[in-house]
Amino acid sequence: MPILADESCPGPVVRALRDAGHDVLCAREIASGLSDEAVLAHAAEKQRVLVALDRDFGELVVRAGVSAAGVVLIRLRARDWQRAARRVVEALDEMGEAAIGSICTIDWATIRYRRIDDPQ
Do 88 and 105 meet the contact criterion of CB atoms below 8 Å apart? Predict the structure, then answer.
């Protein structure tokens, strides 16, 4: 599953995902300072699941109807991003293709899924 990591995604998470063999492109590698809408549009166009800390992406998809291939929100309060990065890799590996077409939220204990096309 191709991934687009938002600028909010910590470097250790990006490195851990790449080290685990995931195809990860970073928003800052495209262009720094893109709007959330532009990041989502790029991810949708390239069929990449967006990984971010910023929960505004979920709001844009659910409330504003902005198109997305999938959104994974990282909701980990962490001082140690190396440990958090391992949790993100573990969660994405567990999710697999279920992340496509969904808004997923990762915390320390659970992974929550909501299909993008589900009514509120």
Answer: no
